[in-house]
Amino acid sequence: MNQPIHSDREDANLIQRDLEPVLRRYARQFPALTLTGPRQSGKSTLCRAVFPSLPYASLEAPDTRAFAADDPRGFLAQYPNGAIIDEVQRVPELPSYLQGVIDADRRPGRWVLTGSQDLALLESVSQSLAGRTGVLHLLPMARSEVVRFEVHPETLDETLLAGGYPRIFDQGLNPGDWLRSYVATYIERDVRTITNVGHLATFQRFVELCAGRTGQLLNYSGLASDCGITQPTAKAWLSVLEASFIAFRLPAYHANTRKRPVKSPKLHFHDTGLVCWLLGIRSADQLRSHPLRGAIFESWVVSEIVKHRTNRGETGGVSFYRDSDGVEADLIIERPQGVTLVEAKASQTAAANILDGLRRTQKQLGHGRCDGVLVYGGDEDQARSVGRVLGWNRLHGVDWA
């Protein structure tokens, strides 16, 4: 989609986010809330909408950051009834001082901390606010949230191309133009604050190579070789992408079978719009014939389900399966009553053999309840003996948590 998404609604940024009910529930239980997620995922907008009575302070502002760093007690004393403190990882010692404030008054929902770097923020919070804060994550929007905008992508390829960053839909921006600026800002500013990346051009190449491997098994050796860096550097840089909620590693499912399962994780991106931009895909027509379209669709399905679960406060419990015979499931969701296998196929037609992969995986795992769902690029739903065939645009209507 190379045209901007236009919307005349001034209140578009006030669409309800799926995480809001969980955020409100946590606010009734914990003195503090910690909300992490990538930059521009809507953390500040959500918190200010849910907690309008709390004052707001952003540590991105140099003067505010200097005050909080130089005089943390004085900074916190400004807010006797609590506050929303944005990008709190910019002053990592602040949660240590907040601990005493909370212990003196443990009323729930007084403090809301947000941050866009998971490792830096959670390390600081876990040391100081253990048991005092509820931790949640806000990822780019799921399809269930995107469709709340009056104007939103209608086709699968437009959906994959646009991704889910709120600003694109809120302000009617061209996805490619906005993502270009986002990548430049992320590499030039954020990476420097997370780790000592000496060669930004090489790191940008690394990010592009990772995008070309979305939905694939992670091979550190091959990734490092193609980028011209060492394997330890590749692992460290991938951790940077994970800490910034750009990409994530989906672990392999540990199954007790006679076949040897693959142990390497799969690499996925949280946002397929970002993947498309990194791969040089600028239009839906270009994506439609792109050799990586199937892998991009798989990442979209996996990330949509991960977002659904994250928006309900669920973390973990997801993996994939592949063994030495090539039997595989793109996603396994572990539930108390059994497991759900999910397969993603970008084709628009549900051919007769489209469920063969699920059938083989169910037989291979062969224990307990093992439901199957195949998500494909078509529109019709079908119920078959092996499992359910689900059109891509109905994925967000299923409770995956």
Can you describe this structure?
The chain is an alpha/beta fold and 401 residues long. Helix content is 40%, strand content 16%. The protein has a domain of 118 residues: Rossmann fold (3-Layer(aba) Sandwich), CATH 3.40.50.300. The strands form three sheets. Strands 9-10-11-12-14-13 form a six-stranded mixed sheet. Strands 2-3-4-1-5 form a five-stranded parallel sheet, sandwiched between helices. Strands 6-8-7 form a three-stranded antiparallel sheet. Helix 17 links the parallel strand 11 and strand 12. The N terminus is likely disordered.
Number of helices: 17
Helicity level: 40-55%
**In CATH, what is the homologous superfamily of the domain at 20-137?**
P-loop containing nucleotide triphosphate hydrolases
Q: What CATH architecture of the domain at 20-137 would you give?
A: 3-Layer(aba) Sandwich
Side by side, the strands of the main sheet go: 9-10-11-12-14-13
Q: Characterize the main sheet.
A: 6 strands, mixed
Overview features:
single chain; 401 residues; alpha/beta; Rossmann fold; five-stranded parallel beta sheet; globular; disordered N terminus
Would you spell out the secondary-structure blueprint of this structure?
Elements: H1 20-27, E1 32-36, H2 43-50, E2 56-58, H3 62-70, H4 72-77, E3 83-86, H5 94-104, E4 111-115, H6 118-128, E5 133-137, H7 143-146, H8 156-162, H9 166-170, H10 175-194, H11 200-211, E6 216-217, H12 220-227, H13 231-243, E7 247-250, E8 266-269, H14 272-278, H15 284-288, H16 293-310, E9 318-322, E10 328-335, E11 338-345, H17 356-365, E12 370-376, E13 382-383, E14 388-391
Parallel strand pairs: 1-4, 1-5, 2-3, 3-4, 11-12, 12-14
Antiparallel strand pairs: 6-8, 7-8, 9-10, 10-11, 13-14
Helix pairs in contact: 5-6, 8-14, 11-12, 12-13
